[in-house]
Task: inverse folding
């Protein structure tokens, strides 16, 4: 058990912790911080303490927003989303506090889909991913947060102090996701405008350094697009990126010519006949030049190859 200050009392379960309760705690603490509200946190299963708490999650057997009780272990659980992913405590807490931490309702939903639902699914034993290698699994956030629990023979720390360390990390992650949600919304609008301004929808020119990954994500549903051209954030050059065939894969709709791949500078200039071509990635998904005009020309030649 540990306490930090007085005022609002937050309670969750003692002992070992999981991603669910860590992120639920981080969300509540972010809310109190935003509102300059003092808080204390106690990890206990003492019913008298639970009853008197202002906010309780992942313990208590009750889900009731009106009394700020956010448990999902009771018989029947605490409901599920339309896609079938059941709510864990993080999801319940986010559903209540997320709208008070984000600028727009769509930001709340975006974070729920990208961060909250995977954590809720894992905590409820719902498998949402499949490894392609029998001996290798993706490194999931629950393994990272779980590593903060004390290990056998470790001296000088407790799960209560380690919980605080993990909550600090979770706070930073949530804050970054809130910023990313706003960026996603802003960039989607900008990129959509660039798409509709393009005469040839197969090559979209983006005049701002919005980021390769972010632009590609925003254009993914536009099936006409094969390449997008954008200013690099690595100096005075322009890049051309081939669109991915699907959002969760690495195959592109039309990779750059085989003869370009892996070439740089003079070698690429000779083969492509573009005077200021700089590079073409080995896999054929990315190329670059020193000018916007040459980057567009790289895309045009690749289209016809």
Result:
């Amino acid at each position: 058990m540990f306490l930090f200050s007085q005022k609002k009392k937050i309670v969750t379960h003692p002992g070992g912790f999981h991603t669910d309760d860590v992120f639920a705690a981080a969300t509540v603490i972010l809310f109190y911080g935003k509102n300059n509200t003092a808080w204390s946190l106690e990890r206990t299963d003492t019913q008298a303490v639970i009853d008197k708490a202002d906010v309780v999650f992942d313990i208590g057997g009750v889900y009731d927003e009106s009394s700020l009780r956010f448990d999902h272990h009771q018989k029947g659980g605490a409901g599920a989303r339309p896609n079938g992913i059941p709510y864990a405590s993080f999801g319940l807490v986010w559903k209540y506090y997320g709208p008070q931490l984000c600028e727009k309702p769509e930001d709340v939903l975006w974070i729920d889909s990208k961060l909250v639902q995977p954590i809720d699914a894992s905590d409820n034993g719902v498998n949402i991913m499949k490894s392609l290698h029998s001996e290798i699994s993706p490194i999931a956030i629950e393994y990272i947060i779980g590593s903060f629990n004390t290990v056998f023979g470790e001296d000088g720390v407790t799960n209560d102090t380690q919980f605080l360390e993990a909550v600090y990390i979770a706070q930073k992650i949530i804050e970054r996701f809130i910023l990313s949600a706003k960026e996603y919304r802003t960039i989607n609008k900008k990129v959509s405008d660039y798409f509709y301004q393009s005469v040839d929808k197969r090559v979209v020119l983006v005049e701002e350094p919005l980021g390769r990954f972010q632009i590609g994500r925003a254009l993914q549903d536009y099936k006409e697009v094969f390449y997008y051209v954008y200013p690099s954030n690595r100096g005075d050059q322009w890049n051309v990126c081939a669109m991915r065939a699907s959002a969760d894969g690495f195959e592109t709709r039309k990779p750059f010519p085989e003869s370009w791949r892996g070439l740089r500078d003079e070698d690429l200039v000779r083969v492509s006949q573009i005077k200021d071509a700089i590079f073409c990635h080995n896999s054929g998904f990315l190329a670059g030049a020193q000018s916007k005009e040459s980057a567009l020309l790289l895309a045009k030649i690749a289209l016809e190859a």
About this structure: Residues 8-182 form one domain. DSSP finds nine helices and ten strands in the chain. Residues 159-197 form the longest helix (39 residues).
